[in-house]
Design a protein that fits this description.
five-stranded antiparallel β-sheet; Beta-Lactamase; about 20% strand; about 160 residues; alpha+beta; globular
């Protein structure tokens, strides 16, 4: 069973575009992780291994276009290749939802990105749903409910 500690989306310029923490940490610990990992991963060459060790856990990352998807995982429990597959499935799901997702989609629609992520990964960092079709169905239902709620507010 996969147990994620955190997921970060970082641009090539080193700006955090999205972060989700699945393990309780102090603000200082979170800031240190971001501060340490961002330049380390950005400096790595494309042909280098996508798995690095950091303190007490492993970090798996993958670059898609101008974004780095960085995942911290528990070393004893997790499978690094499964974590890479989770990253890929997350990107595929966003790509289907947004239609060729880009960094601006994530910036301007971050709440939808969090919805997709929350449908895929539970709050403790374990996988909730791996089917892209199911995740998209749930997010679409949420969109419909949200638009109906907004319509009711306008009409009342």
């Amino acid at each position: 069973m996969t147990q994620l500690k955190y997921l970060l989306l970082v641009s090539r310029q080193g700006k955090i575009r999205l972060k989700k923490w699945y393990t309780a940490m102090s603000a200082g610990e979170k800031a240190k992780i971001v501060k340490d990992l961002t330049p380390t991963i950005l400096a790595r060459k494309p042909k280098m291994c996508n798995i690095i060790e950091y303190n007490d856990h492993k970090v798996v990352y993958k670059r898609y276009a101008s974004l780095y998807f960085i995942v911290g995982m528990t070393p004893d429990v997790d499978n690094e290749l499964l974590t890479l597959e989770i990253i890929h499935r997350f990107v595929e799901t966003m790509d289907t939802y947004f239609g060729n997702v880009c960094e601006l989609d994530i910036i301007f629609n971050f709440s939808k990105v969090y919805d997709i992520l929350n449908e895929m990964i539970m709050c403790d960092g374990s996988i909730a749903e791996s089917s892209r079709k199911e995740v998209l169905h749930h997010v679409t239902v949420m969109d419909t409910m949200e638009s109906n709620d907004n319509l009711e507010r306008v009409l009342s």
